[in-house]
Amino acid sequence: MSLRFLIIALLIVAAVVAGIVLTRARVLAVPVQPIPYSHQTHSDAGVECLFCHSSALRAPVAGIPSVQKCMGCHDVIATDR
Questions:
Q1: Nearest 10 degrees: Cα torsion 24, 30, 32, 38
Q2: pLDDT 10s digit of each residue in the chain, 81 long?
Q3: CB atoms within 10 A of CB 64
């Protein structure tokens, strides 16, 4: 019975470790930007990260803001970009 318990425990540990590794790889993956974009330009202009990435504190990934979020500023400033 102890051998069965050891095997089950090892399988559970392996599943947890695999889950952590796969989740971490997904979180650290850089998404393809749908339009040319520079975080540096926006950061230099004083735009806070959470302004565009409002779910960054609640979700495992910051996500890509909607076009409407971008156009909220770009309709008024930087209309050429």
A1: 150
A2: 688 999 999 999 999 999 888 877 666 666 677 778 888 999 998 999 999 998 888 888 888 888 899 888 888 887 776
A3: 16
Please give the single-letter amino acid code of residue 8. I
Q: What pTM was estimated for this model as a whole?
A: 0.51
What is the three-class DSSP state of 76? coil
CB 65, CB 56: distance < 8 Å: no
Rounded CA-CA distance 1/31 in Å is 47
The gap from C-alpha 11 to its chain's centroid, in whole angstroms, comes to 29
> Contacts from 63-70 at CB under 8 Å and sequence distance 24+?
64/31, 64/33, 64/34
Q: What element of type H or E holds 2?
A: helix 2-28
- Structural domain boundaries of the chain? 1-30, 34-81
